[in-house]
Amino acid sequence: MTWAPAFLTNPERFMAFSRWAAPMFGALAVAAGVLGLYLGWSAPPDYQQGATVRILFIHIASAWMSEFVYACLAVASLLALVWRQVLADAAAQAAAPLGAGFTVLALVTGSLWGRPMWGTYWVWDARLTSVLALLLIYLAYIALRASMDDETKGARAAAILALVGAVNLPIIHYSVTWWNTLHQGPSVFRSGGSALAPVFYWPAILVALAYMSGFGSLWLVRIRGEVWRRRADAAALRAARG
Amino acid sequence: MIHLETGKYGFFIWTAYGISAAMWVLMVAGALLHSQRWRRRAEALSRK
Predict the structure, then answer these.
(1) Given a cut of 80, is residue A27 above it in pLDDT?
(2) Which residue among A90, A181, A194, A241 is the one 20 to 30 A from A139 at the CA level?
(3) A38: nearest CA in chain B?
(4) Helix, strand or coil for residue A50?
């Protein structure tokens, strides 16, 4: 993969890069999160939704991240499967628990927003069901990797699952367009401009930036952990061989 | 000025924020512990 930057393919360079990049992304996440939440809670309650509009900031961010992290996982899985990239495989493995966490948050915060607005915590509409399917795919990916003694085979099987599961991403995205759902249609990025008033739009963007930076930081930390784990396994193997 | 009053929706709003904060703590702690654990193990094995 000559087109890829060395820090994405060379473990030594990745470790040097991530040593300063992970805390930098973490600091950016805290700064953007504090500013976004301050602005969000400084805005007046929505004229229709009242104070429940405060859930918007954390719900949108976690919902976007649940899909974005899966896209990262799928791309990393493709690189690992086709180019046998060890770092890409570590990146895919490291992304899965974070993506599952964001998806749980998207479902829970959406449910807690839905109860006062829709009158129910849950409906089997296309958006909610496809996001639940995303969570199950994340869990299946984690379980598949953990269930096989041969790590290489487990990684390949999980990568194939991740690529097949990527079909769900456009289904989630367009579910509110293709089907008649209780969940509202696109409201932030849509043709004709955002449906959100600027007092809600900018805090939502800032909190989403905080979630993305936070993910970037934690992803790097988890990939570093995977690199250390593989080094430990290799060292243990060398020690066993004498 | 921050509007902290949530009225009759307080349960839903604060539960959503509480669960989100807890999940972030879990994800941060999980990532740091995972990395530290394997770093220590790799370093200990490489010294043998």
Answers:
(1) yes
(2) A181
(3) B2
(4) strand
